[in-house]
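Re-run with default settings, no changes from the original entry. Doing this only to confirm the output is reproducible before filing.
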Amino acid sequence: MFNLDKDFKAFAKGLKVDHEPDSSKEQQRNTPEKSMPFSDQIGNYQRNKGLPRQSFDDSKVFIVGSGIGGMAVAYYMIRDGHIPAEHITFLEQLHIEGGSLDGSGNAKEGYLIRGGREMDMTYENLWDMFQDIPALEMPPPYSVLDEYRLVNDNDSNYSKARLIHKKGLIQDFSKFGLAKKDQLAIIKLLLKKKEDLDNITIEDYFSESFLASNFWTFWRTMFAFENWHSLLELKLYMHRFLHAIDGLNDLSSLVFPKYNQYDTFVTPLRNFLKAKGVKIQFNTLTKDLDMHVNTEGKVVKELITDQGGKEVRIPVRENDFVIVTTGSMTEDTAYGDNKNAPVITIDNSTSGKSAGWMLWKNLAAKSTVFGKPEKFCNNIEKSAWESVTLTCKPSALVEKLKAYAVNDPYSGKTVTGGIITITDSNWLMSFTCNRQPHFPGQPGDVLVLWVYALFMDKEGDYVKKRMPMCTGDEILAELCYHLGIIDQLDDVIKNTIVRTSFMPYITSMFMPRAKGDRPRVVPDGCKNLALIGQFVETNNDVVFTMESSVRTARIAVYELLNLNKQVPDINPLQYDIRHLLKAAKTLNDGKTFLGEGLLRRVLKGTYFEHILPVGDVEEEQDSFLVEKINQFKDWIKGITG
């Protein structure tokens, strides 16, 4: 019989664990030395209970920032690190938790959502956590994951109006419209090494025909990419979401929650952590970390905070841990309403000086292992956009929305199925209506819509202003013009509350970067410090998702505590031949790709026939290959007699 302290810990003490294995570098071989799972071997075997190498009963954990990443740190410290929940404290500069994952307001003053994150079924870390968090509305023992599945399993998502133009007409969105050379460019990008893409932009690599294609319109508006953003990040996205490519045009690959993401995820997770005993200290700004640095490593000794205008130093002992969310995509947000445009007081000369950025800058000044924050916060015109939340009573806008809706907007089911993009809008404006009510307690006659634009620095087509210079009513006018209901603008304004958010850093994590610009989760030499969020380096995951935040949190916990657990790499569907073949056909708008006919003849009637993509085959595409194969067969016959 095992003795936990003696036998198990003896096993664990000598075990060497790569807490963040990299599937893009691993050759999957079974050898006597291979005791841990393959890097992207997802599933139940990865759900073992972590065994700490030592007791952390006396350790304290200080988490700077209470966004989804910080909350995930607390969860994994408790579940896998066995650290007492009452020893975990959040230091939050705001008066509310959630960070950039927000959702607030009411029907009288207007609801507000600054942004949302794309959701996917392959978010292994996010669902690993939320399978254990009690559901928001369902009774015990159901979890947030159970609630999410119940909603989506019974209400599939898709769009019937992904693109519109010409004053509200639905545009054909069935095709990607990629030229052969652009399909080849995508394939070449997938084949390129990540190390070869430092500081290269999307427009540096792709042709004008690619940038003008429907494919790029679908992609850029769904994920908020600009032409000048990082080609490396685009490559990572293409690998990450390869399995979803055939649902990119109609958004059938997406899954959405019942409510906004704050109420769906932050609220139940906060309730769980607080019930366990975790403490959240609001209105506490962490300015810097006092670190002891020598040849043996880097150790945090004090947290330097501002509390109510007073400097307060929080001591950090040798067996304590500090986890910091670096950077912020929503810092310095400027707000507007129906009658007022956002007052923008920040430019490139004043950017990056707010709390979330200054803490990272102060760390970067201590060592190069903490990265280069200035790469991400010093180019406002290339990292900013504005979002708009509409709180709508019945009006001409709601009636127009019904023409684009999959279901009655008031039914509680999928409405637009994701964003609808106005392709002939100077602002490249997009809008969406998710399942309603979008907030718990939202009145039955109210709908919440969300609007954003990628080209906000251009003049509008109807309102001859740049979008950030516009009041909420003027943005409504621009939207109504493109929907063909400008003659009913007064009715729409009367029944719509507008709240605008100008965010100077909202796509800053997409800015072109090179190796070393972002720190690792546990930077080299750090003994009790980890960094989490959207501005740290992971092996293969993307940014701007809740999954990436939770991934960094999990890596932080496993590495700092040196647990016998690994964080599996991203879901391995990018290596699945079924999805690779499907992607080849999808990129070619359902037409036969080179070699498909031959492949079908080889696999017809075999066990593997089902791996082939759905669709007809144009035989002439394979004539050259067939000829060469027949020549090869004749040559073999000649040799063998």
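The mean pLDDT is 94. The two ends are 68 Å apart (CA to CA).
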